[in-house]
Amino acid sequence: MTMDAVAMEPMDPESLRKLVRRDLVVTAAGTLIAIWTYSLVAAAAFGSLSELTAGRVEVAVAVLVSAFCVWWWASGPVGMMRDRLMVLIPVFLIAGPGLIGVHNLGGGIVVGILSGAIGFAAAGVLGLLWGGRNRGRVSGG
């Protein structure tokens, strides 16, 4: 059995429904955690939390959320990877606080390098989403 055959194997409706529910839970939870990390950025900016403490938490949380979301996306059905890109949304939402945390920890040039890499990856995912949206349409008239 080839990888193409495995990728094209249809899922039964109940399995697909469970997968979509889990994907939505992962996306929602990751997004809420990302929003929470923005409150840490604000707390550090207003002086109610030290930049060092905020930086440590922001970086740790960003790494954990990003690693889990990428793992969740990559461990799903191979044939549905392009259709499940929404699971990666929290990775890009939490990237900002993560980069600010690296900067607060004295990251210097590392912040610029990571920022460019994350921006490039986000553009790639957006391109995949846009291409998947137009897939299946017949052009012309």
Relative helix content: over 70%
* Overall form: elongated
Number of strands: 0
Regions with little confidence, pLDDT below 50 for 5+ residues: 1-6
Rg from C-alpha positions?
A: 18 Å
Say what oligomer this is: single chain
Percentage of β-strand residues = under 5%
Mean pLDDT: 84
Question: Number of helix segments?
Answer: 5
Beginning-to-end CA distance, first to last residue: 39 Å
Largest sheet: none
Can you write the helix and strand succession as a string? HHHHH
Class from secondary-structure proportions: mainly alpha
Q: Give the total of domains.
A: 1
Task: Characterize this entry briefly.
With 141 residues, this protein is mainly α. Helices cover 74% and strands 0% of the residues.
Task: Describe the protein.
The chain is an all-alpha fold. The protein has one domain (16-134). The protein is 74% helix and 0% strand. The chain has helices at residues 3-7, 13-46, 51-74, 89-104, 109-134. α3 packs antiparallel against α4 (89-104).
Please write out the topology.
Blueprint: H1 3-7, H2 13-46, H3 51-74, H4 89-104, H5 109-134
Helix pairs in contact: 2-3, 2-4, 3-4, 4-5
How would you describe this structure in keywords?
141 residues, mainly alpha, elongated
